[in-house]
Amino acid sequence: MRGLTFGYPAVAPLFSEWNASFGPGELVAITGASGRGKSTLLYLMALMVRPAAGEIRFRGERVDQLPDSERAHLRAESVGFVFQDATLDASRTVLDNVLESCLYRGVSRGASIQHARDLLSRFGVEQRAEHRPGQISGGQAQRIALCRALMNDPGILFADEPTGNLDRASADTVLAAFRERAAAGSTVIVATHDPSLVTECDRTMAL
């Protein structure tokens, strides 16, 4: 990010001339008070929101000005995102929610089912595969959202308060997954208030 500037209408800018860089293999915590813009920053970096000024580069190429279709393709191929409220589709089963990213990458459902079930099993929610989001707990929804984000083995993984609804054992499992992604060369960026998670990250950026 170079000179990143963004704000909502009638509100003072959240970011002004903000610069930062993140490298492969890093696990980074973004911290700060509520309302400071942690979630918005993740949305900007994940190309879900366009900055008012500045630029975003990925693997040396500028990506913030790409057409929407190309931004969507880049997200499908290279980005995983865990939303704070999980954001699962209530009309679809847990398994279909996890398989969602495959549709955008043009990968067949049949070729991906076993990978999806393996992820659900790893995070202890495999028995919920045929349930719908309204039939599961908040903590289960958060783990399922992580499964969905990991389906494409993302080069960049963003997570917004990923341990907020989890007990300590589940949070430790999630942290292990983050470390595994970083060890595989991915960049992992988490917005969090969880001090246990912050202390395990390679570095912290406070907003």
Automatic annotation (TrEMBL):
ABC transporter domain sequence ranges: 1-207
User: What is the official name of this protein in its record?
Assistant: ATP-binding cassette domain-containing protein
**UniProt similarity note:** Belongs to the ABC transporter superfamily.
Source species taxonomy: Bacteria, Bacillati, Actinomycetota, Actinomycetes, Micrococcales
- Return any one Pfam family short name: ABC_tran
Q: Which GO terms describe its molecular function?
A: ATP binding; ATP hydrolysis activity; transmembrane transporter activity
PROSITE patterns the record matches: ABC_TRANSPORTER_1, ABC_TRANSPORTER_2
Keyword annotations from UniProtKB, A to Z: ATP-binding, Nucleotide-binding
SUPFAM superfamilies attached to this UniProt entry: P-loop containing nucleoside triphosphate hydrolases (SSF52540)
Report which superkingdom the organism of origin falls in.
Answer: Bacteria
User: Which Gene Ontology cellular component annotation is one that this UniProt entry carries?
Assistant: plasma membrane
Record SMART domains: AAA
